[in-house]
Amino acid sequence: MQPASEGMDRDVGKRARVGRALSAVAVAFLLFDSVGKVLEVAPVVAGTTQLGYPEGIVRTLGVILLLCVVVHLIPRASVLGAVLLTGYLGGAVATHVRVGDPLLTHVLFPVYVAAFIWGGLLLRDARLQRVLDVPTTLERRI
Q: How far apart (Å, rounded) are the C-alpha atoms in residues 99 and 96?
């Protein structure tokens, strides 16, 4: 029989790997979006202007998003980055509501991305787990 701490360490490692995977998916999407805006790629500019934003603001939106992602990628600042990204994604929700986009595919998509950001962070950040009082695997078995 293995010691309880060994099983707990394995569960914590698995939790952290899943958290990194969730975070990586969200970060990859947000980096792709921000770089498209910063480089002013034609389809990205067209999509942004269709949402009612002037063409001249696209690069600025990309820089803001990129800075938020970079802050999120710094381990000691990851929670601040998640808060900043949540605000940015909230603006995206409001934009899609304003233009009358479909709920599940457009309006809620930023919410899905935010869920990946926060879910990944919660699974991989012990500080956040302590603050939110997330039970450890060992505590659930007892």
A: 5
Question: What is the distance between the alpha carbons of residues 105 and 122, in angstroms, rounded to a whole number?
Answer: 25
Taken in order 67, 68, 69, 72, is the CA torsion positive or negative? Answer: positive
Q: What is the pTM of this model?
A: 0.86
Reported as a single tens digit per residue, the pLDDT across 10-42 is: 777 899 999 999 999 999 999 999 999 999 999
pLDDT in tens, 77-109: 999 999 999 999 999 999 999 999 999 999 999
Query: Locate tokens 């695997």: which residue?
Result: 137
| CA atoms of 67 and 81, how far apart (whole Å) | 9
